[in-house]
């Protein structure tokens, strides 16, 4: 597979060089006699910050799809090496993040003991055994007795409880995996979130954690640093676990990452085609409002297709089915495994080498796959290039342009002042400073207006959040309440389970089925609604504050025209193209630079242990009633007391769930308001003021400083004149270089999406 385009390195180097050239202008100016202690203030701060800011921006690509669709193989082919374990099929919540690095390194981020125990506590709510727990109130896997007793309790469970919806019950898998992996991780896990590094020749050792369910369960996520042409600087590619995971929490963790991604690549296996799970997941993505930025890869298994016609027919069907969700979907059909083997030719095992040779003989399939690969890489590169240029460079180029124009004007004004006598020079400097005060007054008025409107914006946004997330009457809670009320339990369906497994195991089965259904509803329907709501509120904040700033643009333009008119009257030549408007950075950029983060969607509902007690009490009550009926010679159906206890237990579970959700939503509501949207409002106002300041940078320096410090010595004047002439020439070269960069940037901005 061809390498991912990294042509932006030239652009980045050019910006850094221009930035260095501008900083050198500052140093040259300070070497003018009398200006050794002069400061260019915000200009110098802006230039000093640019190198660090260029390294902070990250373009995120999320690779998603069902288990066994070939995501890891696709990524390995893209990276041109076997870096991710293929065919692991581990259903965990891990997101493996891949970035460019100078050397091969895997960093594994582990959960803390507290997080592990909390996971297990939640899986143990209504666990079907009364006697296995030790005396301690809270479960702690580090206690040998608790591990031993839990293992015995798991071994005693009926097989029915280990299966849910034709697959392994994820709670049973979770508990068993934690127990199985404990001895391996106990030596390095701590009460804090631990990390482990595997570098160079030890890199491959991370596979035993990523590909082993009992160890992967202890991981939060993984970062791989890879020195490969397939990963460009400032790009992060994430391998997200299967979108068809049976655990809704895992899906919520994918949603958290997808909110930050600039591009999604959805991998579909040609062995299965588009399945119901794919349609379900893609519908959810569409509801989140992020389906526009997606490419589809039909990962072809050459062994499954007898002819090129068969493969093309499948690709056509997949495209038609995807078109029901996204109009004109971008579908690329190629073999990731063939591409990987091609890139590893000479390093393949004998078995894989024979497979590659056999595939190469299928010339029509190979030619089609290669053509589709080239088409995908071309579009992939274009999208990444456009995203990177727009995100990484545009704002910096605008800032440098304003400073370069300002320096050019500063040089022009001071060259003119140098040619005049001291009294005339000071008079001109004073007139310039009076006009410059206009810009300061405009900025001060804007800041005052913004500070006045921010509380109103917060009030409006807060009202929206309350209306949407109010725990008792908000839109979200109403939808959840409707689902809970509509959830129907048919106790008679559990008669066989009651006979074979007993009451406690059956109650746990009932609870888990309900929780799975509710968590699935929240993940697939509620979370996308929350994401769209937050995006709408972010836009509302930006629009409200930018509308306040809009009228000041006219004042800036008027003040600028007056400034240019004064320069003309004084016979001083300056750049009069006008200040460029600069808007507020994207919300994503603001989040990174401000340290803000959205409340996580991957928050598990915390049910209380009281559910268990109430259900048991109900069961004992009905046993007493049935015993009384027997004494009174009234008929009692076998298992009737258990069925009624299950029914009443379900009602209690629903009530406890509502209470838990009300608490959870209240907490999320407050976090969303006070820790995110309100702070975002303040940040947008601050950045808007900074954007206007940036717009005025070309006119904010002290243009008349030389008039105040002008030396009467002829030698100093001559040296100052020579330095200013040299600076003038360099300003022109900087302007030309910035012009070329702007042209390149606008060309990339016109690339098709």
Please provide a written account of the structure.
With 753 residues, this protein is α/β, with parallel strands linked by helices. The chain has helices spanning 8-30, 42-56, 71-79, 113-123, 144-155, 170-185, 207-210, 213-216, 248-258, 276-288, 308-322, 336-343, 350-360, 363-418, 422-469, 475-486, 495-501, 503-569, 587-594, 610-631, 640-695, 705-709, 714-749; strands spanning 59-64, 95-100, 105-110, 163-164, 167-168, 195-199, 219-226, 235-240, 263-269, 294-299, 331-334. The strands form two sheets. A nine-stranded mixed sheet has the order 6-3-7-2-8-1-9-10-11, with helices on both faces.
What distinguishing features does this structure have?
disordered C terminus, 62% helix, 23 helices, two-stranded antiparallel sheet, nine-stranded mixed beta sheet, alpha/beta
Topology of helices and strands:
Layout: H1 8-30, H2 42-56, E1 59-64, H3 71-79, E2 95-100, E3 105-110, H4 113-123, H5 144-155, E4 163-164, E5 167-168, H6 170-185, E6 195-199, H7 207-210, H8 213-216, E7 219-226, E8 235-240, H9 248-258, E9 263-269, H10 276-288, E10 294-299, H11 308-322, E11 331-334, H12 336-343, H13 350-360, H14 363-418, H15 422-469, H16 475-486, H17 495-501, H18 503-569, H19 587-594, H20 610-631, H21 640-695, H22 705-709, H23 714-749
Helix pairs in contact: 1-2, 1-14, 1-23, 2-14, 3-12, 4-6, 9-18, 10-18, 14-23, 15-18, 15-21, 16-18, 16-21, 17-18, 18-21, 20-21
């Amino acid at each position: 597979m061809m390498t991912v385009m990294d042509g932006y390195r030239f652009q980045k180097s050019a910006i850094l060089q221009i930035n260095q050239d501008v900083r050198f202008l500052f140093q040259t100016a300070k070497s003018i006699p009398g200006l050794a202690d002069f400061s260019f203030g915000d200009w110098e701060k802006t230039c000093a910050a640019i190198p660090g800011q260029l390294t902070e921006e990250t373009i995120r690509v999320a690779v998603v799809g069902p288990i066994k669709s070939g995501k890891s193989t696709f990524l390995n082919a893209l990276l041109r090496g076997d870096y991710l374990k293929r065919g692991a099929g581990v259903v965990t919540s891990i997101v493996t993040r891949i970035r460019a690095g100078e050397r091969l390194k895997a960093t594994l981020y582990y959960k803390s003991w507290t997080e592990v125990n909390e996971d297990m506590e939640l899986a143990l709510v209504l666990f079907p055994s009364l006697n296995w727990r030790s005396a301690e109130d809270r479960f702690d896997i580090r206690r040998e007795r608790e591990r031993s007793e839990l293992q015995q309790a798991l071994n005693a469970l009926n097989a029915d409880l280990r299966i849910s919806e034709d697959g392994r019950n994820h709670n049973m898998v979770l508990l068993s995996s934690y127990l199985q992996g404990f001895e391996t991780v106990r030596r390095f896990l701590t009460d804090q979130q631990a990390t482990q590094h595997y570098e160079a020749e030890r890199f491959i050792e991370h596979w035993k954690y990523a590909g082993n369910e009992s160890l992967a369960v202890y991981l939060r996520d993984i970062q791989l640093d890879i020195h490969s042409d397939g990963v460009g600087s400032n790009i992060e590619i994430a391998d997200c676990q299967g979108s068809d995971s049976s655990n809704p929490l895992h899906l919520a963790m994918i949603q958290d990452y997808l909110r930050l991604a600039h591009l999604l690549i959805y991998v579909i296996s040609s062995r299965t085609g588009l399945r119901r799970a794919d349609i379900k997941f893609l519908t959810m993505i569409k509801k989140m409002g992020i389906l526009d930025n997606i490419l589809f890869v039909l990962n072809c298994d050459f062994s499954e297709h007898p002819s090129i016609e068969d493969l093309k027919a499948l690709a056509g069907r997949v495209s038609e089915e995807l078109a029901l969700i996204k109009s004109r979907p971008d579908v690329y059909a190629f073999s990731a495994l063939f591409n990987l083997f091609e890139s590893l030719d000479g390093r393949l095992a004998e078995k894989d080498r024979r497979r590659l040779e056999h595939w190469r003989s299928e010339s029509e399939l190979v030619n089609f796959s290669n053509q589709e690969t080239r088409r995908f890489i071309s579009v992939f590169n274009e999208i990444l290039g456009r995203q990177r240029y727009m995100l990484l460079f545009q704002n910096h180029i605008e800032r440098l342009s304003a400073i370069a124009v300002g320096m050019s004007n500063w040089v022009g004004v001071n060259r003119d002042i140098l040619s005049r006598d001291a009294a005339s020079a000071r008079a001109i400097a004073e007139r310039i400073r009076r006009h410059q005060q206009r810009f300061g007054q405009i900025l001060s008025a804007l800041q005052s207006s913004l500070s006045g409107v921010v509380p109103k914006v917060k009030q409006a946004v807060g009202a929206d959040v309350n209306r949407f997330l109010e725990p008792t009457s908000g839109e979200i809670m109403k939808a959840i309440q409707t689902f809970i009320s509509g959830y129907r339990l048919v106790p008679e369906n559990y008669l066989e389970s009651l006979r074979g497994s007993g009451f406690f195991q059956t109650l746990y089965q009932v609870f888990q089925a309900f929780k799975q259904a509710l968590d699935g509803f929240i993940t697939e329907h509620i979370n996308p609604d929350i994401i769209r709501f937050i995006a709408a509120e972010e836009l509302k904040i930006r629009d409200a504050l930018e509308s306040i700033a809009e009228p000041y643009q006219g004042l800036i333009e008027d003040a600028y025209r007056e400034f240019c008119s004064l320069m003309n009257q004084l016979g001083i030549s300056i750049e009069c193209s006008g200040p460029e408007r600069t808007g507020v950075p994207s919300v994503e950029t603001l989040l990174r630079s401000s340290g803000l983060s959205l409340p996580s969607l991957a928050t598990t509902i915390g049910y209380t242990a009281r559910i268990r007690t109430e259900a048991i009490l109900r069961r004992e009550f009905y046993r007493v009633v049935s015993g009384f009926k027997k004494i009174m010679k009234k008929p009692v159906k076998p298992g009737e007391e258990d069925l009624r206890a299950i029914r009443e237990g379900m009602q209690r579970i629903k009530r406890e769930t509502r209470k838990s959700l009300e608490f959870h939503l209240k907490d999320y509501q407050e976090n969303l308001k006070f820790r995110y949207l309100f702070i975002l409002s303040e940040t947008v106002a601050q950045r808007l003021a900074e954007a206007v300041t940036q717009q005025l940078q070309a006119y904010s320096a002290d243009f008349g400083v030389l008039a105040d410090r002008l030396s009467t010595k002829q030698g100093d004047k001559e040296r100052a004149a020579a330095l200013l002439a040299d600076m003038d020439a360099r300003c022109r070269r900087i302007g030309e270089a910035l012009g070329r960069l702007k042209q390149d940037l606008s060309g990339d901005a016109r690339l098709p999406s």
